[in-house]
Amino acid sequence: MDGGMFQQQLKKNYRNTRKRGNNIKIINMKIIAQSFKMKGDLDDDYTLYENGEILHEYDRHRYPGGYNLKRTLNIEQIDNEIKMRLFNAASDENKALVQEILGL
């Protein structure tokens, strides 16, 4: 995909997100840690960005409307278990930064 098409897709995704009224915004930041986990057959994934924002992508239940949910969190909104998941998932080169951002 060339740069122009990529920008058009970003704008389309942003418009679609705003129309749905979710609290998600497009983050153009470097990902420094990603933790993927399943609770049974439900997703429970966290992505930590270099600015300290965390994207939580999850499934609430198996019924319509319960899949592929997203929300943006800050450090104070996650517990130590999630912080450790992100720290353990970080690459060796990002561990110190993740530790500093998460306050571990």
Please provide a brief summary of the model.
This protein is 35% helix and 24% strand. With 104 residues, the protein is an alpha+beta fold.
Could you explain the architecture of this structure?
Strands 1, 2, 3, 4 and 5 form a 5-stranded antiparallel beta sheet that branches. With 104 residues, this protein is α+β, with helices and mostly antiparallel strands. The protein has one domain (27-102). The longest helix has 18 residues, at 3-20. Residues 8-21 have low confidence and may be disordered. The protein is elongated. It contains 3 helices and 5 strands; from the N terminus they run αβββββαα.
How many domains is the backbone divided into? Answer: 1
Measured distance between first and last alpha carbons: 39 Å
Class from secondary-structure proportions: alpha+beta
What is the H/E order?
HEEEEEHH
Kindly report the average pLDDT value. 80
Helix content: 25-40%
Strand content: 15-25%
Per DSSP E runs of 2 or more residues, the count of β-strands stands at: 5
Task: Give start-end ranges of low-pLDDT stretches.
Answer: 8-21
Largest β sheet strand count, sense and barrel closure: 5 strands, antiparallel
Please compute the radius of gyration using only Cα atoms.
15 Å
Total number of helices: 3
Shape: elongated
How would you summarize the topology of this molecule?
Elements: H1 3-20, E1 31-35, E2 38-39, E3 42-49, E4 54-58, E5 69-73, H2 80-89, H3 95-102
Antiparallel strand pairs: 1-3, 2-3, 3-4, 4-5
Task: List its salient traits.
about 100 residues, five-stranded antiparallel β-sheet, about 25% strand, elongated
